[in-house]
Amino acid sequence: MSERKRCLSGMRPTGKLHLGHLVGALKNWKALQERYDCYFMAADWHALMSEYEHPQAIRDAVYDNVLDWLACGIDPAKSVIFRQSDVPEHAELYTILSILTPLGWVERVPTYKEQLRELEGRELATHGFLGYPILQAADILLYQAHVVPVGEDQLPHLELTREIVRRFHSLYHCELFPEPQPLLTEAPRLLGTDGRKMSKSYRNTIGLAESADEIRRHAQAMFTDPTRIKMTDPGHPETCNVCHYWKLFAPARAAAVWEECRTSTRGCAQNKRELAEVLIELTEPFRAARAEPRGRTQQELEALLQAGAERARQVAQRTLMDVKRVIGLAAPATA
Ligand code: TRP
After folding, report:
1. Is the C-beta atom of 83 inside 6 A of ligand 1?
2. Distance from C-alpha of 214 to C-alpha of 6, rounded to nearest angstrom
3. Could you tell me the distance, in angstroms and rounded to a whole number, from the CA of residue 196 to the centre of ligand 1?
4. Could you check whether the bond before residue 13 is cis, i.e. omega within 30 degrees of 0?
5. Closest listed residue to residue 37, CA positions, set 77, 84, 69, 66
6. Best mutation site among 135, 157, 198 for ligand 1, i.e. most ligand atoms within 8 A of its Cβ?
7. Ligand 1 center to residue 11 CA distance, Å?
8. pLDDT digits (tens, 9 = 90+) for 119-130
């Protein structure tokens, strides 16, 4: 095995990826490939936990998300790309971990109550949904991951994972798992096109693979500095969402844009029009990945995922065997 530390992260395939995923996760994943042995997983069981009443879209979302991972430079030659449900060891380790995790630990995870509120309209008072963070712990521990790139909202799940590790070690007198550390994505906060929190349910996201015209339409509809009524009013770029997009997606030009905005030499309409072109160029690889005839077919993606699952399983099976040995479910290793 290589000397590099291991990194695991996952996304729930519940829909198409947007600019928020690009700055919040994918850019970071791409960079991490150079320093860690990375495992990137489409967490379809986690998706099923909230979507089980209408699960039809999950399978296609896996293909769609993985296409975007590849388009942004996640490289199957460097990283293991796989689908959670193709590696049944996740479910097996989840069973064992759920047996030894006190109920109070999962009941008090703050994301649990939050999600119940946020995903209202769905029947989420299930046994599985309560176990969501335990399955996530299994995802991480199966690969004995040292680092887990996540957004801030996932920190309680990492904390729970570390608590489970300590309990496992103390129960079975072993030191099997590194305590995984979160790698907080320095995600510059990207708001939705309407200035509210970015969320698919607000329809304020810009999809990575949307057409140029759709992107122009989104940009046109963006909110700008509300105190700037006439073009001759000086703008306040620090409070303008369009200007924040400039800073994030065209940092080299942003200073000039901000200055023109302050000095009223750039109007909001022009600002949005030009931002649209920046975003269109930036998202070109995601459209190209779907263009006929060069885009990957579903069969090719499936083959790629199967190859990834095979590599993932080799590691997962070894860890699971070690787990069973320290518990005593499997016979000790023979030398
Ligand atoms: N819960 C994560 C999210 O919603 C997705 C996820 C599943 C994950 N398993 C993981 C993230 C393991 C990191 C590690 O974003």
Report:
1. no
2. 39
3. 24
4. no
5. 77
6. 157
7. 5
8. 777 888 899 999
Is 161 touching ligand 1 by the criterion CB < 6 Å? no
Mutate which of 9, 39, 152 for ligand 1? The one with the most ligand atoms within 8 Å of its CB, which is 9
Enumerate residues 6+ apart whose C-beta is below 8 A from 174. 168, 326
Alpha-carbon distance 25 to 191, whole Å? 15
Which residues lie below 8 Å from residue 160, measured CB to CB, with a gap of 6+?
Answer: 101, 105, 106, 109, 133, 134, 137
Residue 290's pLDDT band (boundaries 50, 70, 90)?
A: very high
Centroid of ligand 1 to alpha carbon of 221 (angstroms): 32
Domain 6-190+297-327 class? alpha beta
CATH 3.40.50.620 in the chain: give the residue spans.
6-190+297-327
- CB atoms under 10 Å from CB of 321, counted, come to 13
Centroid of ligand 1 to alpha carbon of 263 (angstroms):
44
Intervals of CATH 1.10.240.10 along the chain: 211-282
Per residue in 44-71, pLDDT tens?
999 999 999 999 999 999 999 999 999 9
211-282 CATH: 1.10.240.10
